[in-house]
Structures are given as structure tokens and as C-alpha cells.
Amino acid sequence: MAMGRSLEQVVYDRQMSERAQSRRDLEARIGYSFSEPALLESALTHISALSGKTRSASYQRLEFLGDHVLGLVVSDMLYRAFPKAEEGELSRRLADLVRQETCAEIARAIDLGAAIKLGASEASAGGQQRVAILGDVCEALIGAVFVDGGYPAAAAMVQRLWGERMLKLVRPLRDSKTVLQEWAQGRGLPTPAYREVERSGPHHDPVFRVVVELPDMAPAEGRGRSKRAAEQAAAAALLAREHVPTVSADG
Q1: 247 lies in a domain?
Q2: Quick check: is 101 catalytic?
Q3: What is the pLDDT of residues 32-89, one digit of tens each?
Q4: How many angstroms from the chain centroid is the CA of residue 216?
Q5: Which of 41, 63, 67, 148 is catalytic?
Q6: Catalytic residue among 41, 63, 136, 139
Q7: Cα(186)–Cα(73) distance, rounded to whole angstroms?
């Protein structure tokens, strides 16, 4: 042990060094280096890790910003990549690319979970792999890059991480809710009605159960980490039961 340094100080210095290395590794994976490392630190900090600090020290404000930046960048990417696509198809593609589950998949691809700072209880509960946390931190990371380097830097990162996924499915997307609505209309039925029947799990990572109903038909049920995902799952279940073919964009 170095002269005059306590064991606690040595441990703290080691932890800070490891965290700094983790941030540098993450910067290498996303292809962007921060001028203000504190921004990256905030983007990676879950509210459970705060002690005596305000909620604004967590990733929540950057997540709010990053969500909108991601939507703008991906909208621009889609507009340029699919010049013949109509508004409806572009909207469906956008929804698929910016949904929480997709952001979580991107986060896993860059091993973002390993860099997230969590409180002890959240970490022991496997918070670094929760879809909700991974998706939120991914958006917060985009927000942090936007604040630090401006729109060009944020757009370059999103294009690097989302570009291949955007081009992967070149045929028009038709999600299950859209297919079910078209199928119902073709048979003179009203628009399918979706109803949330249960919400379970912790507040920060809920599971939704939704049923979809059509006249003179048994309802179908679906579950998901978001209400939208549960509705899509319910629609897919009804379509499968009725043997209706679909090209899924539900992920």
C-alpha cells in the first residue's frame, strides 16, 4: 500500500480506474469520444445508484432528449433509404427501429449493460440485462452524444449502430395489428378492440397482458414489456388462430 493512503482510498482509486477504462472501451465500441466525460457518466447512471443526489443526475433527462434525437435521425435515414415508400410504411419501419426492445438489442450489441452504474439491489436483481433499463440507457447515450458533439455526432453514431438493421428487411413491413385490422375490414367487421387486463411486475419493468376482441369471435391474448408489444402479441395470436398469413414486423 502506498505511504499515507488508506485501504479505502486504494479500493476507491482502483474502482475509478476500472470505470474510466470501461468508459474508454465503450467509446471505442460506439466510435465516439466524449469531450465532457461527465455527460457519459450521467447517461450510464441509473437512479438506483444515486445517493443524496437529485434525479437529474441519472440518465432520465438524457433519455428524454435521446429518444427524440433517435426518432429524428432514423426518420431521416428511412426517408433517404426508401425513396418510394409511402408514409404508412415509413411510420411502421420507424416504430420498429425506435421501440424499446430494439434499443435494448442495440445496447446488448455494444455491451452497454457492463458499463451501466446501478444501485446494489438493482444490480443483484439483474438490472444490467433488463430490457427497460438497456433501452433507456441506449437512448440516454444518444442524448449525451448529441449534447457533447451536436447533431452530426449523434447522427453518425445512430447510423453506425442502426444502419444495418434498417436495411435488413427490404420488403414493406406489415405489423400484426395492421394485418388484423385489414383482415377484419375485409370481412365487414369493426376495428379490433384492445383492452389491458393486467399489469404485473415491478414499476420500472412491468409486463402487460392485453386481449383483442372482435364480434362473434373468442378474444385472443398477448403479453409484452410494453402495452404496444402486448397488443401486437394479442393480434398475432388471433391471426395465428385464424390461420391468417402475415409478414411480421413485431420483432
Answers
A1: no
A2: no
A3: 999 999 999 999 998 888 776 666 678 999 999 999 999 999 999 999 999 988 887 8
A4: 37
A5: 67
A6: 139
A7: 36
